[in-house]
Amino acid sequence: MHLKTITHPLLHSVNDVVAVGVESFYATNDHSFPNDVLHFLIIFLGFPWCNVVYYSPEEVRVAANGFLSSNGINMSPDQRYVYVSDILSHEIDVFERQGEHLVHVKSVAVGSLCDNIEVDHKTGDLWLGCHPNRKKIPLNDPKDPPGSEVIQIQNIHSEEPVVTQVYADNGHVIMGSSVAAPYEGKLLIGTVYHKALRCDLK
User: What is the mean predicted confidence (pLDDT) over 7-11?
Assistant: First the structure.
C-alpha cells in the first residue's frame, strides 16, 4: 500500500537509503547531476561530487560529500556509524554520526565495485555484494557474463579490518551480484537482473 512519496531537489539520484527514524533517513545520490551526460563527464574527469543527504520533515541537507559515486548505505548495530559504498573508488567509507552530521572516520579498500551493504546485527560484520568487472555489467552478455563477488569485512573499526572474499564466480552461476545477506548459517546473494543464490556458510 502506497503511503507517501518524498521528493526534494537534493534527492535527485537516490540509490539507497537507511532509516534513522520514523520519517528521517540518509540517502545516497549516485549521480552528481540529474543529467546523465554531465554525470559521466564528471566521472571521466574524476571529480568526487556525489553525496549523502539527510532527510527529515524538518530539514533536508547534505550530510557528507566527496564520493565518485555513493551507492549502498547502512548503519552499525549501535547506530553510531554509517557505512557508504563509494563504488567507483572500490572503498567502504566509515562515518560517525554527530547529531545528523556525518564525520569521516576512515576508508577501507576492498578491491572491487561494491554495490549494497548488509550489516550482521549480531557481529557488526559488513557483507557486500560486488561487481568484479565494471565493463561487463551494462552489457549483460550471456556469452561473456558479468561475474559475482561477495566480500565480508570484519572488525571494520579496528586498525586492521579483515577483508575476505567469501564467494566469487565468473557469472555462469549468477550474474552481477549486488547484495549479500547472511542468516543462520546461510548466505542469500541477490543480483541486478538475474536470479538469487542461497549458499551454506562454512
Answer: 95
